[in-house]
TrEMBL record:
The gene is ghrA_3. The keyword Nucleotide-binding does not apply. This is Glyoxylate/hydroxypyruvate reductase A. The keyword DNA repair does not apply. Its EC number is 1.1.1.79. SUPFAM superfamilies: NAD(P)-binding Rossmann-fold domains (SSF51735). Gene3D superfamilies: NAD(P)-binding Rossmann-like Domain. Residues 107-278 form the D-isomer specific 2-hydroxyacid dehydrogenase NAD-binding domain. GO terms for molecular function: glyoxylate reductase (NADPH) activity. It comes from Paraburkholderia haematera.
Amino acid sequence: MKILFYMPHADAAAWLHDFARALPEAELREWQTGDTAPADFAVVWRPPREMLAGRDDLRAIFNLGAGVDAILALEHEHPGTLPRNAPLIRLEDTGMAPQMAEYVTHAVLRYLRRFDEYQTLQSERRWQVLEPHPRETFTVGVLGLGVLGAQVAQTVASFGMPVRGYSRSARQIDGITAFAGETQFDAFLDGVKVLVNLLPHTPDTGDVLNKRTFSRLAKGAYLINVARGGHLVEQDLLEALASGQLAAATLDVFREEPLPPDHPFWQEPRITITPHMSALTLREESVAQVARKMAALMRGEGVSGVVDVERGY
Ligand code: NAP
Ligand code: GLV
């Protein structure tokens, strides 16, 4: 089996070494410009168009992340980039779900216990106890109840706050009040105190974090966006913070990454910024999952995590 690898800024030698250990019979190479030699599988993150276009020999393309918006955008801009008969397969959890649960729980508890405000008080050398937020009404709403959203929702619920979840199709998760489809969107949002976004970025979900969405939340709500920058209408966030409709936001993802130094978000003390690190791709877990799926495909078996290109996730 021949495997092509492409992941900018990664330690390619380490990835190839781990793949060679998992699949000793495989021939592995890092893709270089002009490489059109045969391959069975491509393992990629944000590949250039030339790597995939016209490669009808591929049996599958493995995306080294959960989100496939970048590779689908390439297909959208240059139709035919993705080989017709090769499924696109994304990572499922591979250690990202616990990372995401930690990140979001940390942010929710920080707001619940008002640590953000205590940090400001400390900077002003003020000794003052703030009225705690009542836990029973500190409702957390998780947009997206997939591999990551479901684990985040359950982890947050274990701290005793009411938790709601929103997905496209109906889901049942113990301890979570579930809403599904556009007709239940407003009911999901109404009165939510912390809105967490874990939707994939698709034509249906772009700009979902907007003025209208914010207006349905409880007054002084919090936003945690860990999915994609394209979900957020940035000006609407700044206005919602200025009006007090939102109290604060934690953002891990941005329309432009790295976030440019002159971006207004850097100047807004109520916005907490992290550099797209809420759930990193872990090499060991990812190689193990991808290698297992390659072996299954070679045996003619089906695998999970196949992206529905039309749906966008
Ligand atoms: P997933 O398993 O595919 O789950 C997606 C969830 O969103 C599903 O519950 C799906 O509904 C729901 N959904 C999709 N379109 C919808 C729509 N139009 N309306 C309502 N619900 C919709 O994805 P995942 O593995 O949890 O990952 C989610 C996203 O997290 C990724 O796409 C990626 O953008 C982001 N991410 C970010 C980082 C980071 O470091 N910041 C790391 C990893 C992933 P159904 O259940 O009905 O299908
Ligand atoms: C990271 O953002 C991912 O989609 O895995």
